[in-house]
Q: What sequence folds into this?
């Protein structure tokens, strides 16, 4: 196996990249600038060394605590609970939220062997107990696992006198009734808002 | 910009990889094994150093001449002319061809400033003149540029008493008349074969 085949094989291990795409990427890089290949390679090789978990929120960061947790301008009384560290990025890009985050590290899925104790739920309760938290927003996917986890966390938070909310679920903006599935439609009815 | 953002930005420079896919790849790698990231990184960084062009056919190779040109079992009297080095891989995977290759390095496209002198046409004529070539197969895409280049090379090869052929063009196997474009259909008529 030569250097091209080895790189193609390594690329196919990435999600959504089949053999043809892997070959196309490899040849594109080979046809291109060696400097780019070296830079991409060095960043990949050094990624795990540069990035750690924030000891407060569990998000990916270069410094601990992460820039978001360390930012005194942000609202420290609101915590947005997400499944994965990458969800922080998605929400940050929407510029919709100015509080802090908490990464659960997964969703409850007993069939896949993921139980509440595998998630960062204890540290969340600790933060709510210790800090003057006013609201916890559950930004979990509207799936069976997301619903289960939201219910579980909601129950644990009942002992605190704080607001627990969940992101609205319904028709996507720009979507079409015709293409909405039954469950989404049903949820958009239940969550209908007064005009 | 932290290590994650830098890697996302670098990934978006690859063909077919937008911002969302770049982020998904980066987080997938970060969530995964550091060993894989290091291996992928090292192979990328070392790619250009490991791979050179074969001085005979122009294909990508670790040794010069490349394993295909050096293989004495292959038919040295037939040359398959391709546009790009990656086309060699595609044809090799079909196991349909047992001769040697010649990489033109592009197709004639005057509007894009690619003229015959930019392609490896001289070396091709030299190989035909020097070696006992029986047939040259033009495996160029059935596009305007491919047709133009095929015609140009075919004219230059007229002075040698060798066979010059081109890959058949027509309906793809498993395809449907209904979805064939007019030009493909027209070409499949002109190239119809006796049963």
A:
């Amino acid at each position: 196996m030569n250097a091209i085949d080895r790189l193609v094989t390594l690329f196919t291990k990435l999600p959504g990249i089949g053999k043809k795409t892997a070959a196309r990427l490899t040849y594109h890089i080979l046809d291109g600038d060696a400097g780019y290949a070296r830079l991409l390679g060095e960043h990949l090789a050094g990624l795990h060394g540069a990035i750690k978990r924030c000891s407060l929120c569990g998000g990916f960061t270069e410094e601990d605590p992460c820039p978001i947790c360390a930012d005194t301008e942000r609202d420290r009384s609101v915590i947005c609970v997400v499944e994965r560290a990458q969800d922080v990025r998605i929400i940050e890009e929407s510029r919709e939220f100015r509080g802090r985050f908490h990464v659960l590290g997964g969703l409850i899925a007993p069939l896949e062997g993921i139980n509440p104790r595998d998630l960062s739920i204890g540290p969340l309760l600790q933060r709510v107990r210790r800090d003057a938290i006013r609201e916890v927003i559950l930004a979990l996917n509207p799936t069976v696992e997301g619903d289960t986890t939201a219910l579980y966390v909601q129950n644990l938070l009942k002992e605190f006198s704080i607001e627990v909310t969940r992101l609205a679920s319904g028709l996507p903006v720009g979507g079409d009734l015709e293409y909405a599935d039954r469950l989404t439609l049903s949820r958009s009815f239940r969550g209908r808002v007064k005009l």
